[in-house]
TrEMBL record, chain A:
UniProt-recorded name of the protein: Methyl-accepting transducer domain-containing protein
SMART domains: MA
Domain of life of the organism encoding this protein: Bacteria
One example of a Gene Ontology biological process annotation: signal transduction
Positions of the Methyl-accepting transducer domain: 272-504
Entry's Gene Ontology molecular function annotations: transmembrane signaling receptor activity
Transmembrane stretches, start-end: 35-54, 66-87, 99-120
GO cellular component: plasma membrane
Stated family: Belongs to the methyl-accepting chemotaxis (MCP) protein family.
TrEMBL record, chain B:
Official protein name in the record: RedB protein
Residue numbers spanned by region Disordered: 203-224
InterPro entries on file: Thioredoxin-like_sf
Source organism, top-level taxon: Bacteria
Organism: Blastopirellula marina
Length: 527, 224
């Protein structure tokens, strides 16, 4: 019964709830004890300070000594301030500490009332002390402080009223009045304390209930933890254990559905990844082939461009050569015309020479006639010389020599005539050849003219060819640019294909980290 | 390693010792505060040897004070409401060479004495060697002697109920009755305060300390 009055918070609690509440109360009391430790030190210092200020010394004539109030307040500051403060700070978990605090606080009230000579205002220290002590939420603490205050008030009120009320006469009514106020405050504080204790009890019961639920939840979670661990390691073939806790039951069901769903998704994903891997491999090979084809095309285009440029160059050279040939044929044509003219002039000269030869032949005939007449004359002279005998001998020798000269002359003229005849024949041959040559030159000129015309045509054609070759070269250059762009795209496509293939492989490795059931049959893949 | 029982015993013992020490200290302070000064022989009529002038035809209140005594303040505060009548001459006899302006020590009552000195019917007297106190038989600070118009002693005692305790008390009531009504059933009350004179070994009483029992007339009204 007494324990229900003093410790109502423990009624109806089991051992676990009581232990939890006790631990909470110990912690709360420890905090309150530390608070009171500071308060006690402050009050002790105030009491000691007041004694130093108000009654520092006692006198006997001229002799002075430390006032007993100083010693008394110092002792009380130690007993009521330092000792409880020490207990409150270093023995805060000790249940006895709060009762020491209650006694000390009530004693401080008595001391301050005594020091003030029973001033009414200081009596409020009692009420403040009781309010502070209610922080302990312990009815016994309040009871102890109230009893000490009551005994102090009753004792001093009856036997030493000026000390507590500043009156000379016993003041039982004042004691009753003060006691009434204390009882009213105690009643209010006790209502608050009991309400607070009930709340603490309810809170502890809820706390223990939550802790038990938490433990059950932890147990259920511990049951499910291996499933999560295995699932985290990629094993989706794990069996979900049966859980009793109703709160976790739904979690277990959801986990089972989740694992199954994951298994299905991963299986489909694995299949898709395989397809993607195969497609990426095909894409990779195709892109590689395409890249290689583009490279070959590029080389061919380069070769074609080189050939076209060479063709363009050769056409250009041909055109230049044809131009030079045209110039040469023009020069040859003019030379041929000049040669034709020269040949005509040469033929004319030959005819003149032929006529001159004819004239020379005639002249040589004349000379030959003269030689013959000279020979006749020499013969006549030798006949005459022979007729003239001895005198004519000289004439006979001269006539002989003239005759020999005439003979030589005749021979030479014959030779000259032969030579002139041969020359004339040669000249005639030359004239004939010149005529033929002239004719041939004319033919050549006409051929050269036709060649010149043809060459002009060829020049025009080569110009067209040059233009065509230039256009072709430009088209090939454009084609090459397009091809280079295509080649870049091809290279990028090949690189992307490589990356895609690598990603597909990585994805496949990731998927292979999972252990799952394929649609119906169990296929275990390990990475 | 102490057992739980021995630990509990130690705690209870320490708690009891602490309670006893606290109670003893309070009891000692209470006893100290309640210890009156020793009784002394007070002249029933105004002594001729005194150098203090008595105003003829007026009541004369002599208050023997130690200016350094902390209890003096309570005596002055209690006397304050009584000093109203022009028919009353008050002389405050301060032990020692009293210089109110030059001394303001902690615990002393110089400021209060100076304010009393400003009153017309109040006279402050320095009792350097304590001769006046000896002439009037005052041995404790706060000792009040009221002489009537004829110079007869009508009140002998203190006006505080213990050391330094201001507020209503029997002594003050007796003095008030005597002043106002010129008549009182009692004429004496214990004096609580510091000794005015140093105790010489030969002066120390060999008998038991004086009792706090009130005079018979105060029985039922005063509790020491």
């Amino acid at each position: 019964m007494l324990s229900k009055i003093l410790f109502p918070q423990y009624s109806g609690l089991d051992a676990d709830e009581s232990a939890t509440l006790h631990r909470e109360e110990l912690a709360a009391n420890a905090r309150t004890n530390r608070l009171f430790a500071v308060l006690m030190l402050i009050q002790g210092l105030v009491a000691f300070g007041l004694s130093l200020v108000i009654t520092p010394q006692t006198w006997a004539g001229e002799a002075s000594s430390v006032h007993p109030h100083v010693w008394g307040s110092a002792i009380l500051a130690i007993l009521l301030g330092v000792v409880p403060a020490y207990l409150g700070w270093f023995q805060s978990q000790n249940p006895l500490t709060r009762y020491v605090m209650a006694i000390s606080q009530a004693s401080f009230s008595a001391l301050f009332i005594h020091i003030s000579g029973g001033r009414t205002e200081v009596h409020f220290h009692v009420f403040a002390s009781l309010a502070f002590l209610s922080l302990y939420r312990d009815p016994l603490v309040l009871l102890i402080a109230t009893v000490i205050t009551a005994v102090d008030h009753l004792g001093r009120g009856l036997f030493w009223p000026y000390s507590i009320f500043g009156l000379s006469d016993p003041a039982l009514m004042l004691v009753i009045e003060h006691a009434s106020w204390v009882i009213i405050e105690d009643a209010v504080l006790l209502v608050g304390i009991y309400s607070s204790l009930r709340e603490a009890s309810t809170r502890c019961r809820d706390q223990v209930l939550h802790r038990r639920q938490h433990q059950n939840l932890n147990q259920a979670i511990d049951q499910l933890r291996p499933v999560f661990d295995l699932a985290a390691q990629g094993d989706l073939t794990v069996d979900i254990p049966d859980v009793r806790d109703p709160h976790v039951k739904s979690l277990q069901t959801d986990l089972d559905r989740t694992i199954r769903s994951w298994n299905h998704v991963v299986a489909m994903f694995s299949q898709s990844v395989d397809n993607v891997t195969a497609s990426s491999s095909h894409l990779h090979s195709s892109s590689t082939n395409l890249s290689q084809g583009i490279e070959i095309q590029s080389e061919s285009l380069t070769a074609i461009l080189t050939e076209v440029e060479a063709l363009h160059q050769s056409i250009h050279s041909i055109r230049e050569n044809v131009r030079r040939a045209e110039a040469a044929t023009e020069a040859a044509n003019s030379m041929a015309h000049q040669s034709e003219t020269s040949l005509a002039e040469s033929e004319q000269s030959m005819k003149i020479i032929e006529e001159s030869a004819d004239q020379m032949i005639a002249t040589v005939g004349t000379i030959q006639e003269l030689a013959k007449q000279t020979n006749m004359l020499a013969l006549n002279a030798s006949i005459e010389a022979a007729r003239s005998g001895e005198a004519g001998r000289g004439f006979a020798v001269v006539a002989q020599q003239v005759k020999e000269l005439a003979g030589h002359c005749d021979k030479n003229i014959t030779l000259v005539t032969q030579m002139i005849q041969q020359t004339r024949q040669h000249i005639q041959t030359g004239v004939e050849k010149s005529s033929r040559t002239t004719y041939q030159f004319k033919e050549v000129c006409s051929a050269v003219a036709s060649i010149n015309a043809e060459t002009s045509g060829i020049v025009a054609l080569t110009q067209n060819q040059v233009d065509s070759a230039e256009r072709l070269r430009m088209q090939i250059a454009n084609l090459r640019e397009i091809h280079e762009s295509t080649q870049q795209d091809g290279i990028q496509l090949s690189n992307e294909g490589d990356i895609l293939e690598q990603l597909a492989h990585e994805l496949r490795e990731c998927v292979h980290q999972f252990k799952f059931h394929a649609d119906k049959s169990e296929i275990q893949t390990t990475a | 390693m102490p057992t739980a029982a021995s630990k509990c015993l130690i705690q209870v013992t320490a708690f009891s010792v602490w309670l006893i020490l606290v109670g003893s200290t309070f009891a000692w302070l209470t006893l100290y505060g309640s210890m009156p000064g020793p009784p002394s022989d007070v002249p029933e009529s105004w002594p001729s040897s005194t150098e203090i002038n008595r105003c003829e035809g007026q009541q004369h209140l002599l208050v023997f004070l130690h200016p350094e005594c902390p209890c003096t303040r309570a005596t002055l505060d209690n006397l304050q409401p009584l000093i109203r009548s022009d028919d009353l001459q008050v002389t405050l006899i301060c032990f020692g060479d009293f210089q109110p302006q030059s001394n303001n020590s902690l615990g002393g009552c110089y400021r209060e004495l100076q304010s009393w000195n400003d009153r017309p019917q109040v006279t402050l007297v320095s009792d350097v060697t304590g001769q006046e106190a000896e002439r009037f038989g005052a041995s404790t600070s706060g000792h009040c002697l009221l002489y009537d118009r004829e110079g007869k002693l009508v009140y002998n005692g203190g006006v505080t109920s213990s050391r330094g305790h201001r507020g209503a008390n029997t002594g003050l009531s007796i003095l008030k009755s005597t002043l106002v009504e010129f008549d009182s059933a009692e004429s004496s009350y214990p004096v609580f305060g510091c000794p005015l004179l140093e105790k010489k070994p030969e002066d120390l009483p060999l008998d038991s300390p004086p009792s706090l029992d009130p005079p018979e007339c105060c029985e039922g009204r005063f509790h020491a």
